[in-house]
Design goal:
The complex is a heterodimer.
Chain A lengths: L12 E9 L5 E10 L3 E7 L5 H8 L7 E6 L2 E2 L4 H5 L2 E4 L11 H11 L7 H10 L16 H15 L3 E5 L7 H16 L3 E5 L3 H7 L2 E6 L2 E7 L8 H17 L1
Parallel strand pairs in A: 3-8, 3-9, 6-7, 7-8
Antiparallel strand pairs in A: 1-2, 1-4, 4-5, 9-10
Chain B lengths: L1 H14 L1 H45 L8 E4 L19 E4 L11 H4 L1 H6 L4 H17 L4 H6 L1 H6 L5 H33 L6 H31 L3 H30 L5 H36 L6 H51 L3 H13 L5 H26 L8 E5 L3 E5 L22 H31 L5
Antiparallel strand pairs in B: 1-2, 3-4
Helix pairs in contact in B: 1-8, 2-5, 2-8, 5-9, 5-10, 8-9, 8-15, 9-10, 9-13, 9-15, 10-12, 11-12, 13-15
The chains are: A alpha/beta, B mainly alpha.
Bound molecules: adenosine-5'-triphosphate and magnesium ion.
């Protein structure tokens, strides 16, 4: 499960003309295509309702694509969802775990659900420390956790699954500046392990800092996609605003 | 993976704060109900023994077979501790004599109406009302609660087949609720043992089956909760739905079945039938008397023709007339009795048909199926009355024959009174056989009808089967609903 793909050139995560029209007629995603390779971080930027969560949900087969497909390590998610899901770990937008369970109990359940039965108690403590959750909290029920603490727990769960691909929906949204900073380092270390990471975020600076590739989404389309190398000298925020302004002028026009 | 999911369900139920409180309340209620049941059973046994003793004494003191007041008592059954059924509504004894028909009198509720106000809260009631609510309280948000918490997404980010997840919900919920509830059930049985209530092998068998039926009923509501939670997105909606379903299943359908059956197959009331018999008899007697008057008028016409004193011939004629009248009277009485019997037979048949329809209709609800199974197992079902009355009726025939034979034996003066008037002692009344009294050793003893596991089998197996079918249907529904469930 954790082995790297044979060819690092084969994308771990791939969207091919991914299109989603919801039952109420909203076209949330319009022919989106991108690739994320092993050891690569792909950041999706975009305003509220741009289609970031929809994209991630399609990779998880929570919804079926209207057209196109999402592939994980070559497996089409909506055709072989169970096989595809063995290859991904996921941190949701607003992590809510079992409130009556302690952090350790939550970790243990999700690790074993993901097929990782070999972990010991120490492994759980270590991964919680790695994501920045103080030891005192490990045996507390999640009921008393703050949003950021839950977020850290969610990230720990994703790490424990040890899957080649990781999907993160606004992972830094609840984290304090220090935790946000630590999280970026954590992502870098995961990338170093060869994970393919797809994240949606509103944090332009962090995106620029860490991502290998940045896409700006608007109205279900990728309106800009560049490798990080091409953004080194650009002010990403300015660029983002320009694109957003472009949208508003479009709307006006 | 199934075991991982089941373990999580178990843990989620047992760690939830509402679990301890509800579990303790349920357990206390159950134990309390069994304790009250034991007290009531012991009272019944005491009353039964006292009643039998009273008869024995009565026979010992009786001076003639004529003065024996025999009563047949309905025997208490230890199963009534768990299922009171109709036990307290039906009379406890019937007078046995040649003059009056068997009729059960003095039910616990007529003697102590205060109990009738709230009814006995027995084990069956606790299962029927409290456990079903308990089940629904824990499972109404089994699926949609996880959706609302966002954990459903995290679970399904793993390669978890939906079928396995919903199966784990049901099994986990079942284990998490049924296993704990076995504790108060076992304690209840221990309580019965502690009070030294003797339980026969047959009682044990019936008790075990009753517990199985209770668990089957409980299972249905556990799965019903899961079904409702898999059909709705919000737990607030499913809570209301579950409550409505509970009200419909537990409170409405069992009663509606009876009401609808009453509409489809109306049965006249006993009072109506009695009224019909009375007016029939009034008519018959009226025609009888007019006919009799007519006859006498004709007879007197005859008599007037031959004047003079009452000769022997005349006297013989008069005897003949009286015999004629007597025969006519008997014929009328017989006619009325036949009419009475016919109406009552008809009433009984229609009642049976209505009961059957009412029970069939109400069996749409597992609550009725459980209640009927419980009453059948405990022998406190709707046939309790007729079963006892029939046995008492048979005994009455035996008894009257015996008494008649005894009376014939002791000669024509056997039952005659002697009245002695003494100026000093006053009046004393006695019989010629005062000293001998009656010898009760040969008197046939009433043996209350026994009711066993196999007697009940036909009906409770149907209900037990129904309970299983309901659970399977609910599970099928939950399964189908969850396959299409939006986990976001
Ligand atoms: N279940 C749904 N039914 C209908 N429309 C939906 C549904 N979910 C999302 N949408 C619509 O799809 C579009 C994209 O939504 P999405 O949640 O993917 O946005 P997002 O980029 O994640 O936004 P945010 O930054 O606020 O999280 C929006 O217009 C939204 O209204
Ligand atoms: Mg979103």
């Amino acid at each position: 499960m954790s082995e790297l793909p044979l060819q690092s050139t084969q994308p771990m995560l791939e969207a091919v003309n991914l299109t989603k029209r919801y039952e109420d007629g909203v076209l949330a995603l319009d022919r989106v295509s991108f690739q994320v390779r092993a050891g690569e971080i792909f950041a999706m930027l975009g305003g509220n309702g741009a289609g970031k969560t929809t994209t991630i949900n399609l990779f998880l087969n929570f919804i079926e694509p209207t057209e196109g497909e999402a592939r994980i390590n070559g497996i089409v998610t909506h055709l072989e969802p169970l096989k595809a899901k063995e290859q991904i770990a996921f941190v949701s937008e607003n992590v809510m775990l079992y409130a009556n369970f302690t952090a350790i109990q939550n970790l243990d359940f999700f690790a074993r659900l993901g097929g990782q039965t070999h972990y010991t108690r120490d492994d759980y403590h270590n991964v919680l420390l790695r994501v920045g959750l103080a030891k005192e909290a490990h045996h507390k029920r999640l009921r008393g956790y703050s949003k950021g603490m839950r977020q850290k727990c969610g990230i720990a769960i994703a790490i424990l699954k040890n899957a080649p691909a990781i999907l993160l929906d606004e992972p830094t949204s609840g984290l304090d500046p220090k935790a946000g900073h630590d999280f970026i380092e954590l992502l870098a270390s995961l990338r170093a392990e060869g994970k393919a990471i797809l994240m949606s975020t509103h944090d332009i600076f962090r995106a620029k800092e860490i991502a290998d590739s940045v896409a700006i989404m608007n109205d279900g389309k990728i309106i800009m996609q560049r490798p990080a190398a091409a953004l080194v000298d650009t002010d990403l925020e300015q660029l983002y605003m320009q694109y957003m302004a472009g949208r508003s002028s479009e709307l006006v026009g | 993976m199934l075991s991982v999911l089941i373990q999580k369900e178990l843990k989620a139920i047992i760690l939830s704060p509402k679990f301890t409180a509800t579990f303790i309340i349920c357990s206390l209620l159950m134990l309390l109900s069994v304790y009250i049941g034991i007290q009531e059973y012991q009272n019944s046994v005491k009353q039964y023994d006292a009643g039998k003793q009273l008869i024995d004494e009565g026979i010992r003191e009786a001076t003639s077979w004529h003065s024996v007041r025999y009563r047949a008592y309905r025997a208490p059954d230890p199963m009534q501790i768990f299922v009171s059924g109709l036990n307290y509504d039906i009379g406890r004894w019937s007078a046995i004599n040649s003059q009056s028909m068997v009729k059960l009198r003095n039910s616990s509720y007529t003697d102590d109406p205060i109990f009738a106000v709230f009814r006995f809260i027995d084990f069956t009631f606790i299962v029927l009302v409290v456990l079903s609510l308990f089940a629904i309280m824990f499972t109404y948000d089994a699926v949609n609660g996880e959706r609302e918490d966002g954990t459903l997404k995290l679970v399904f980010a793993n390669s978890v087949p939906r079928a396995r997840y919903i199966l784990a919900k049901c099994i986990g919920g079942w284990l998490g609720l049924v296993v704990p509830i076995c504790l108060p059930i076992l304690l209840s049985i221990l309580l019965v043992q502690l009070f030294g209530i003797p339980l026969s092998a047959d009682n044990w068998l019936r008790l075990a089956t009753l517990i199985a039926a209770a668990i089957a009923f409980f299972t249905f509501f556990i799965i019903l909760g899961v079904l409702i939670s898999a059909m709705t997105k919000r737990s607030s909606v499913s809570f209301l739905l579950a409550l409505v379903a509970w009200i419909v299943f537990v409170l409405i359908i069992p009663r509606a079945g009876v009401i609808v059956a009453g509409q489809i197959l109306p049965v006249p009331s006993t009072a109506e039938v009695e009224g019909q018999v009375q007016s029939f008899s009034r008519d018959r007697w009226a025609t009888f008397y007019t006919a009799q008057e007519e006859r006498w008028r004709e007879r007197s016409l005859h008599n007037n023709q031959s004047e003079g004193d009452l000769s022997a011939v005349e006297e013989e004629k008069l005897w003949k007339y009286m015999e004629e009248d007597d025969a006519a009277r008997k014929a009328v009485q017989q006619e009325i009795d036949e009419f009475d019997r016919k109406l009552n037979d008809d009433l009984r048949h229609r009642r049976t048909a209505q009961e059957r329809l009412a029970f069939s209709l109400s069996r749409i609800s597992p609550a009725s199926a459980f209640q009927l199974a419980a009453m059948d197992l405990a022998g406190s079902d709707i046939a309790l009355k007729s079963r006892n009355e029939q046995a008492m009726d048979l005994y009455r025939t035996e008894y009257t024959q015996f008494v008649q034979a005894k009376q014939a034996e002791s000669g024509p003066g056997g039952g005659a009174f002697t009245i002695q008037i003494d100026t000093e002692k006053g009046v004393s009344i006695g019989t010629p056989r005062d000293q001998a009294a009656v010898d009760a050793t040969q008197l046939p003893v009433f043996v209350p009808p026994t009711f066993s596991f196999s007697d009940a089998a036909a009906t409770f197996l149907l209900d037990l089967g129904l309970l299983l079918i309901f659970s399977i249907v609910a599970f099928g529904g939950a399964f189908a609903a969850f396959l299409r469930y939006d986990v976001r």
